[in-house]
From TrEMBL:
<protein>
    <submittedName>
        <fullName>YqjF family protein</fullName>
    </submittedName>
</protein>
<feature type="compositionally biased region" description="Pro residues">
    <location>
        <begin position="1"/>
        <end position="13"/>
    </location>
</feature>
<dbReference type="InterPro" id="IPR018644">
    <property type="entry name" value="DUF2071"/>
</dbReference>
<feature type="region of interest" description="Disordered">
    <location>
        <begin position="1"/>
        <end position="22"/>
    </location>
</feature>
<dbReference type="InterPro" id="IPR023375">
    <property type="entry name" value="ADC_dom_sf"/>
</dbReference>
<dbReference type="Pfam" id="PF09844">
    <property type="entry name" value="DUF2071"/>
</dbReference>
Length: 256
């Protein structure tokens, strides 16, 4: 008997939009992302696919996917509706992330690394949620309209992996392009928990985006995450003062 070919994952409905497709009434986690700078480079989907969890594939625009380096301040993180945790719930963070879709057509991101400056949240993220958090020495500084983010990895490694990003914040974006929505409006996280792929939905207001000029970018976090070193300047540089976010409980992802 001839076996039938495996069905392809459904195509997500239409382009990414700036508005959340769902609400989260009883959040597992609440936090704010402040002073957010987005840097993006195009990437070959084949290079990205090899580092993704089972059941997840690269999300693309015109056959191209992207690698994001996103630096920001995480602020007032709290669990299960409880008040935010002082000190431990606010810290700088810099992420290397990829753009993904699962067999249900749910778009999201996969984090290759999350550098953060608080050791206890790093340990909780790694042990409790299976996320690749890294403990790093970090700063976020502002001088006029110029923001500078620095990160030097302490643990687990590669020790010394670093980034230094400086941007000049520009004018507000009245209507983001389709690509700008694709790179910023991601309404879920694909990950692996206890050996099983999971999807964690999130919601937040529409990003208030601004143009940004890249002044300096010296980083090796992308290569440290096992991805090809970005070639040339990023094709997209954006800034946002930030948004509050709410995360729902994880849901399963079917294996292909």
């Amino acid at each position: 008997m001839t076996s039938l070919p495996s069905p392809q994952p459904p195509i997500p409905d239409g382009p990414v939009t700036g508005d959340a497709p769902r609400s989260v009434r009883r959040p597992l986690l609440t936090q704010s992302w402040l002073n957010v700078t987005f840097l993006h480079w195009p990437a070959d989907p084949a290079d990205v696919a090899r580092v993704l969890p089972p059941g997840i594939r690269p999300d693309t625009v015109d056959g191209v996917t992207y690698v994001g380096l996103v630096a920001f301040r995480l602020h007032r993180s709290g669990w299960l509706g409880l008040p935010p945790v002082p000190y431990l719930g606010s810290f700088p963070e810099t992420n290397v992330r990829l753009y993904t879709v699962d067999a249900h057509g749910r778009r999201g991101v996969v984090f290759c690394s999350l550098d953060a400056s608080r050791l206890l949240p790093v340990a909780v993220g790694r042990i409790g949620f299976g996320l690749p958090y890294m403990w790093s020495r970090m700063t976020v500084g502002a001088r006029g309209d110029i923001l500078t983010y620095t990160s030097t990895r302490r643990w687990p490694g590669p020790r010394g992996a670093r980034s230094r990003i400086s941007v000049r914040v520009g004018d507000p974006i009245a209507e983001p392009t389709g690509l700008e929505h694709f790179l910023t409006a991601r309404w879920g996280l694909h990950s692996t928990l206890l050996g099983r792929p999971v999807y964690v939905p999130n919601t937040h207001p529409r990003w208030p985006l601004r143009r940004a000029e890249l002044i300096a970018c010296d980083e090796d976090l992308v290569a440290a995450a096992g991805l090809p070193t970005p070639a040339g300047e990023p094709v997209s540089v954006l800034y946002s003062p930030g948004v509050p976010a709410r995360f729902a409980r994880p849901a399963g992802v079917p294996r292909r």
